[in-house]
Putative pterin-4-alpha-carbinolamine dehydratase (Marinomonas hwangdonensis), 102 residues
Amino acid sequence: MTHRKLEQHEIEKALNQLNTEASEDWAIEDEKLIKTFKFKDFQQAFGFMAMSALYAEKQDHHPEWFNVYNKVSIQLTTHDVSGISQKDFDLAEKMEAFASNL
């Protein structure tokens, strides 16, 4: 499936939908979809990253992320369209599902 860079109004609509379904922590910063997840401990954070990494590899869409102990900071952007695409919101939704199952 070919993806395209979303227009600002599309990003705002998708962000509102994601935050309604999730925890309202997703935001747009520097043309990236961002969130910091906080887990009980490092083991949960690492489990989340492992599940997310396996899914991301299958989708050929890899997050920019940073982990310190129980926190995982995520930045999503679609490099081949130089901005945010539906792929970023799809991955964000999946990450929310992984985090809620821990």
